[in-house]
Design brief:
The structure is a single chain. This protein is mainly alpha-helical. The chain folds into 3 domains: 17-119, no CATH class; 125-294, no CATH class; 296-413, no CATH class. Helices cover 69% and strands 6% of the residues. It contains 17 helices and 3 strands. It has helices at 17-31, 36-49, 87-101, 107-119, 126-143, 148-168, 172-176, 178-197, 202-209, 216-227, 231-262, 276-293, 301-322, 324-346, 351-359, 364-375, 379-406; strands at 53-59, 62-69, 72-79. It has a 3-stranded antiparallel β-sheet with strand order 1-2-3.
Length: 413
């Protein structure tokens, strides 16, 4: 028998449009990889503007939303399926958020528009997706010190990974094997190419070929969440990033072992890399490929280019002046300041600027090399690389937090 003060609702209460909008906003932001501390702040501020008091708890795969009204709480749970970064949709969601916040749009209209944005199909054709993967990988190989041999290998591996995303997405079981398959095919393609064009540094090609897949940005986001006391979300995201690195590394080790046993490829040979001017040109080309990979709008190309150049040259100056760790911290602060200035004057999400710049700085490549060292029984080297990942990640986090102290962000997103 239920206690006397136990209340039973006889029928479902119609959802308050304000609450439904908050739930849709949280789900959309989480889907496009918004950091937990930004998501929680955005939903809380939006709730206050609509006369509600919201307690928000976000993880990479779910959001709990508890609304307090008249001394009573209603709690909502929404499941999030993390997707790829889509700056165009994130910009549209930010526009809706601003309109509802300023009471220029009703919550019901906001719900409908957010659903339309989320359900909007990807307009980038497969060939452009594959070309951008290959192009970004080729430019990364130049920045890693490779020459035309490494550049060719990275382009082939990157294009294959881009096509593999579309192929595995059609089957859930294959999709779960994607990270392993990407590392496996990267090592196999690098080994086969060495038989055709002669010895070259296959490690650079493999690393550059899968650079877009390496979760360096996820590692940095996780550490930022931990630094901002979002412990649950940061820990979950950190473990997920480590698992992706392990699967990529295990796949690369398996592919390399298969090639060595069956084909006996020539040993790696180090070629002199391109000049500094060519590396700067590669950074410029990389910004163009990022527009497609991150699904940004074409008129954001110049902003992403400015971010990439800022990250590239500030990191070169910072590392040469202050050393690796403090140089990366300086570069991250420069990128963060640029992003906050862009958000203030253009009234758009700062992530449009910060994301491309961080891609140039994140320690994902070192993390992958750490996994490779462990796979090759080089434990000491693996531990050293893993520790360096943590230090560089911390430098990035401190740089971004310093940028918010220098130029206070006007926008939540």
């Amino acid at each position: 028998m239920a206690p006397k003060n136990f209340k039973v609702r006889r029928g479902p209460r119609p959802d308050d449009p304000r609450v439904r909008f908050l739930v849709e906003l949280a789900r959309a932001l989480g889907t496009y990889s918004t950091a937990s501390y930004r998501l929680e702040e955005a939903v809380s501020i939006c709730a206050q503007s609509m006369g509600l008091y919201a307690h928000v708890f976000s993880t990479p795969t779910s959001v709990f939303l508890s609304i307090e009204e008249d001394g009573e709480y209603d709690t909502y749970l929404t499941r999030i399926t993390p997707g790829e970064v889509n700056l165009s949709k994130l910009r549209s969601i930010d526009t809706i958020f601003n309109a509802v916040f300023a009471k220029k749009m009703t919550p019901l209209t906001g719900i409908r528009k957010i659903k339309e944005i989320v359900l909007e199909p990807d307009r980038v054709p497969l060939w452009a997706h594959v070309l951008s993967f290959g192009g970004a990988s080729a430019t990364a190989s130049v920045l890693f010190g490779g020459h035309w041999q490494e550049m060719l290998g990275a382009a082939l591996i990157g294009g294959t990974c881009g096509a593999l995303i579309d192929i595995t997405a059609k089957n859930r079981e294959y999709a779960r094997l994607f990270d392993f398959l990407a590392g496996f095919f990267a090592a196999v393609i690098a080994g086969l190419l060495s038989l055709l064009i002669g010895p070259y540094t296959t490690t650079i090609s493999v690393l550059a070929g899968i650079i877009v897949l390496i979760p360096g940005l996820t590692l940095t986001t996780a550490m930022t969440e931990l630094a901002t006391r979002n412990v649950v979300s940061g820990s979950a995201r950190l473990v997920g990033a480590i698992m992706i690195l392990v699967l990529l590394g295990f796949g690369a080790a398996a592919g390399d072992e298969l090639v060595n046993v069956l084909l006996d490829p020539p040993p790696s040979l180090k070629h002199d890399g391109f000049s500094t001017h060519w590396r700067g040109f590669a950074a410029v080309m990389g910004a163009g490929f990022f527009v497609v990979l991150f699904r940004a709008r074409l008129n954001d190309w110049w902003v992403m280019l400015a971010s990439v150049l800022c990250a590239y040259y500030s990191s070169r100056f910072g590392v040469a002046t202050f050393g690796l760790e403090f140089g990366i911290c300086f570069a991250a602060a420069c990128v963060g300041v640029l992003g906050n200035l862009f958000a203030q004057f253009a009234d758009r999400p700062a992530v449009t600027v910060v994301l491309p710049g961080l891609i140039m700085l994140v320690p994902g490549s070192i993390g992958f090399r750490s996994v490779q060292s462990f796979m090759g029984a080089e434990t000491l080297s693996g531990v050293e690389s893993a520790f360096r990942v943590v230090v560089i990640g911390a430098a990035l986090v401190v740089g971004l937090l310093l940028s918010n102290a220098v130029i206070r962000p006007r926008k939540v997103l």
